[in-house]
Amino acid sequence: MFDVGMGEIGLIAVVALLVLGPERLPGAARTAGALLRKARQSWQSVRAEIERELAAEELKRSMKETAAAADPTADVKDALRSVMNVPPATESAPAPGANVPSAAPDNHERH
Fold first, then answer.
1. Contact assessment for residue 108 and residue 89, using Cβ atoms and an 8 Å cutoff
2. pLDDT in tens, 55-87
3. Cβ distance 28 to 40 under 8 Å?
4. For burial by CB atoms within 10 Å, which of 28, 59, 60, 69 has the most?
5. Domain ranges (residues) in the chain
6. Could you report the per-residue pLDDT of 16-35, keeping only the tens digit for each?
7. 40, 16, 14: which is closest to 28 by C-alpha?
8. What secondary structure does DSSP assign to 50-100, as a single string?
């Protein structure tokens, strides 16, 4: 996170010793360590939550793509069009009871 070398840590320790004194320095160091630990834990928690959300979104997107790829509706429509010799521009289904030419020949008696 921060690029702090040993010289800089030593300088900070000397300044802290001069400012706080030898009596309060150990307590301040413990408090600073505890606060740093809590900050790191909070950051790790936020990071893990974001990663879980991203993974969940990726999974949802993947499931939608798989469902769309596995949807046989377009293939079934194309197969029906080719069997019934219907041009692809007609998307609507005929109304119930409408006269629809059947694929089978009529077996009416002829006189």
1. no
2. 999 999 999 998 888 878 888 888 888 888 766
3. no
4. 28
5. 7-84
6. 989 988 899 899 989 999 99
7. 16
8. HHHHHHHHHHHHHHHHHHHHH--HHHHHHHHHHHHT--TT--SPPPTT---
Burial label, 37 (beta-carbon count in 10 A; 0-12, 13-18, 19+): exposed
Quick one: 78 exposed, middle or buried, by C-beta within 10 A (0-12, 13-18, 19+)? exposed
Tokens standing for residue 94: 């005929």
Looking at residue 104, the DSSP 8-state letter turns out to be S
Contact (Cβ atoms closer than 8 angstroms) between residue 42 and residue 34:
no
**81 Cβ partners below 8 Å, 6+ apart?**
87, 88
Handedness of CA 64, 69, 74, 75 (dihedral sign): negative
Whether the model clears a pTM of 0.70, i.e. scores above it, the answer is no
